[in-house]
Design goal:
- The chain is α/β, with parallel strands linked by helices.
- It has a single domain, classed as 3-Layer(aba) Sandwich (Rossmann fold).
- Helices cover 40% and strands 13% of the residues.
- It contains eight helices and eight strands.
- It has an eight-stranded mixed beta sheet, with helices on both faces.
- α2 links the parallel β2 and β3.
- α1 packs across α7, α3 runs parallel beside α4 and α4 runs parallel beside α5.
- The chain is globular.
- The two termini are 28 Å apart.
Length: 288
């Protein structure tokens, strides 16, 4: 097991804003755990980090598979006894390579699965490592595009649109953030969410047929502020537009809606509620 001064895991770090954030963290002397699906792109980032004098390690996982997320969490547990920063950045856009309604390997609506459920499961499984340092931070990269969750049709089998699916998944991230902050109050682990910047110059934005309005650096610096900024010490459960604290969709602050999402999420990923949680990595946890 590797002992490092500070360790940061950035999901979706082989491209776009995730790659920018990973590079900046490594330049600050933080060991970066690189996540992606494409081995070549992941290794190219690791080489760039090492060529600049930094340290990085690759974890490959397809976030459309909950089993792959579990295997990645097991690997991080095996390799590290602590995790100081977790940035849940991986996601898919409104259209891109997946226009129309698709399902994940587990049979869930794809954007809900990749943009929300994968990060929910990964964070839940890595909580023991996040609670090892005196202070740790979870940053959920969400969006200003948010739509209330229809609990009668969460998987959007009726009236599907990519925009609706994307915006629902992003609000789910924020609802999870608020819940996680309450669960971890007083533990030293903070959880915050943000819309980093509008239409950053990324493949996701171009793939959705949109014109870039912001730079990757602009969004990346906002993420880094939540991950590292001294002003965020002990501030948790917040939603930011860039670096400005603001209000998300009102459903994020409805305890009943968050409770419904919370129960649904634990059921879908096959984990017990926190009061019964054992970490979900052993034979006693269900895998779906």
């Amino acid at each position: 097991m590797i002992a490092a001064t500070r360790v940061a895991l950035v999901t979706g770090s082989t491209d776009g804003v995730g790659r920018y954030v990973a590079g900046r963290l490594a330049a600050l002397g933080i060991k970066v755990l690189v996540h992606g699906r494409d081995p070549a792109r992941a290794e190219s980032l690791v080489r760039a980090v090492r060529d600049s004098g930094g340290s990085a390690q690759v974890y490959l996982a397809d976030f459309s598979s909950l089993a792959a997320v579990r295997e990645m969490a097991r690997a991080v547990h095996r390799d590290y006894d602590r995790l100081d920063i977790l940035i849940n950045n991986a996601g898919i856009g409104v259209a891109g390579h997946y226009p129309g309604r698709h399902e994940s390997m587990d049979g869930h609506e794809l954007r809900f699965a990749v943009n929300y459920l994968a990060g929910f499961l990964l964070t839940s499984l890595l909580l023991p490592r996040l609670q090892a340092p005196r202070e740790a931070r979870v940053v959920n990269v969400s969006s200003v595009g948010q739509q209330p969750i229809d609990f009668d049709d969460v998987m959007l089998k009726r009236g599907y649109s990519g925009q609706r699916a994307y915006c629902q998944s992003k609000l789910a991230q924020i609802m999870f953030t608020v819940d996680l902050a309450e669960e971890l109050a007083g533990s030293g682990v903070t959880a915050n969410a943000l819309h980093p910047a509008t239409y950053m110059d990324t493949k996701m934005v171009h793939g959705d047929g949109l014109t870039a309005m912001s730079s990757v650096a602009q969004g990346g610096e906002a993420i880094l502020t939540l991950a590292l900024g001294a002003e965020l010490v002990r501030r948790s459960g917040l939603y930011f537009d860039g670096t400005n604290a603001t209000r998300a969709n009102r459903q994020a602050y409805d305890p009943a809606s968050r409770a419904r999402l919370r129960q649904l999420s634990f059921d879908l990923v096959g984990l017990p509620q926190p009061k019964d949680r054992t970490g979900g990595l052993g034979s006693g946890s269900k895998e779906r």
